[in-house]
Amino acid sequence: MFPNAFQRPLLGLAIAAALPAAALADDEVVLTPVVVSDRQGQAVPLAPTAGQARAKLARVPGGTNLAEPQQETRLATLRDALDYQPGIIIQDFFGGADQPRLSIRGSGIQSNPVNRGVLLLQDGLPLNEADGSFIIGLLEPRNSAFITARRGANATTPGATTLGGELDFQSMTGADGRGQLRLEGGSFGRQALQAAVGGQGEQLDGRLSVSADNYDGYRHHSGSTRSSVQANTGFRLGDRFENRSYLSWTDLQFDIPTVVPRDRIDSNPRGVMGDGNTAQDKLLNVYSRDPRRAARQLRLANRSQWGDDALRQGFGVYWQNTDDRFNNQTSTTVTGSETVGAQWTLDGKWRQLDYRLALAWSRSDMDRELYATSPKTGQPMQRFGNYALQAENREALAGLGWQFAPDWQLVGEVKWSHVVRDARSRDDGSSLDQSWDYATPKIGLNWTPRPGLRGYANISRSNEAPTYWEIVSGEVSPQNPAGARAELVKLGVQKATTFEIGTEAELLAGRLNGSLTAYYSDVDDELISTTDGYGIRVGTYNYAGGTRHQGIEAGLNGSLPVTASGAIDYRLAWTYSDFRFRGGEFAGNQIAGVPRHLISAELLYRTGDWRFGPNVRWLPQATPTDHANTSSIYQDPYALLGFKVDYRRNKQLSLFLQLDNITDERYASSYAIRNKATAAQPGFLPGNGFSVSAGLGYRF
């Protein structure tokens, strides 16, 4: 499987994109000194340093994160990059390059697999399709210098109006060194390779990264592969103008082992439906239905920025083409989409006022076909849906910050959105055209009594329109694929009012850094997706009784010296989520899908070039998996213990050894969400058992 990851198109793109980077590297030797750095001291607006990004986040009156994937040991999954970030919940599905569940403040968690609720950005420009959906497995964190998150209404992009906020993956550039090689391997056939080359001259820089992942999988029928090419090149004219171009291509394929009844988590955690002789095993046989997903995306983007801190403008455009084939075991959805977008921003400062204006536009044209899946071969049978879909967004933003006292800043912002979701059936001519106009305001307060200490509070609104995964609904009975039917579903916008307060502090000369945020959201018309008795998504509706999302997001990190030559590096993230139905059918019940407490912690003893120590991922309370809160099918609490050894030499050579789930705990990593379920229904995804992984990295 691994050799297939290096396919001809990937190599073609790699060679084509490598030529300018190689040329830049050659120019570097002849014309200017090569700068091999972590971008320290540079002032490049479109490719900021982590320090510059952190300073920008400090001006946001609310909860934010900054993760640095290059400081992590293993980067096999998105959770490796974001595991110790408070307020960001990632639940593995199958442990490889597949589709982990991402949630911030419960946004989008009801989609299955997760495909909405957060705006994903690549270098400041949206990755989502114009209908708000995304394929999370297409994300490759290895080429990210850092990842910033602005949780909830703290998002600053015009199109980021959802309850969850935004995540921005900032690419490494030619300023990050001449190149990088990373090799990783481990249990269950895990193999990964990344090779990157870059260079920086007086005005030009460029970088090309090629990566491939292969994973045989812990469970049966859970293999995955991902190949990715990412390249970018930048051009600067003094300190007042910069232009960057980006190319990315990703080919993602993975098998889906699907859900199993609760008792099989202990009895056969590697098994799938089809390993037993029950009527359910025969009906939902994974080996014959062959559920899987294959997605391929090509993306081009360009950004320009000019001006200085007094007045800076930026303009970006992007285009992406995505082909997606998703067999969920009873139906196969084939989607081809083309998305274009543009974004203009203006930031300025006048006396005690910071002001910001932005306009954005995006449009996606999608062709979506739905087929019943053969229960004997897994191949598509008759087509029962054929839709032309067109999503368009027009967005505007105006923001103002007023430094009314030396330590205090008042921040106000309003976003306006015109959102279109048109759908037409090519089979019977039926159509459903929907559009909404809404404003998303926010007012917040920042208090900074000294460097390293900040308090903040804000009141905000959020709005989220449905995606086509909710609007186009297909239903196929596994007993009767010939009776498959599809329909267009009219849905409303999910809306929320959120109150937020928090603080960030740097103490003991940076040896103790902490953040604490509390929020409360009243949500109206929450988009709730549910699955049938077989764990297959069947539909979405707006919950009429109202819901409430409240929680606490807390993080600690730092380094404490314990001997003359040694110190303990520590990280702790605690995310508390109390999400409930306020009224209606499930009044008072906990909304299924998110654990109330999720704790990730790590202690590493550092001496010389070595670091080693334990870590834990702890879910201390049982979690309901259906909205009726049926006690017999709660997800059991668990604690996963790990240990890692990390060796780094002169910021060039790094080696690691990582042990995960040392006690071989049997647990459910995720599950299907239903309105009401029983223990006999398949609904759980067993998590990975004990595993070992190791890797080598070299930067030059």
What would you note in describing this structure?
The protein is mainly β. It has a single domain, classed as TonB-dependent receptor, beta-barrel domain (Maltoporin, Chain A, Beta Barrel). The strands form six sheets. The chain has a 22-stranded antiparallel β-barrel. A five-stranded mixed β-sheet has the order 1-6-7-4-5, covered by helices on one side. A hairpin with a 6-residue loop joins strand 16 (353-373) and strand 17. The longest helix has 24 residues, at 8-31. The protein is globular and about 70 Å long. It starts with a helix and ends with a strand. The model is unreliable at 1-44 (pLDDT under 50).
Please outline the helices and strands.
Blueprint: H1 2-5, H2 8-31, H3 50-57, E1 64-67, H4 78-82, E2 89-91, E3 101-103, E4 119-122, E5 125-126, E6 144-151, E7 165-171, E8 179-186, E9 190-200, E10 204-215, E11 224-237, E12 241-255, H5 264-267, H6 279-283, H7 286-289, E13 292-307, E14 311-327, E15 331-350, E16 353-373, E17 380-405, E18 408-425, E19 431-450, E20 453-464, H8 468-471, E21 472-477, E22 480-488, E23 494-507, E24 512-524, E25 526-531, E26 537-543, E27 547-561, E28 566-581, E29 597-607, E30 610-619, E31 638-649, E32 653-660, E33 668-671, E34 684-686, E35 691-699
Parallel strand pairs: 4-7
Antiparallel strand pairs: 1-6, 2-3, 4-5, 6-7, 8-9, 8-35, 9-10, 10-11, 11-12, 12-13, 13-14, 14-15, 15-16, 16-17, 17-18, 18-19, 19-20, 20-23, 21-22, 23-24, 24-27, 25-26, 27-28, 28-29, 29-30, 30-31, 31-32, 32-35, 33-34
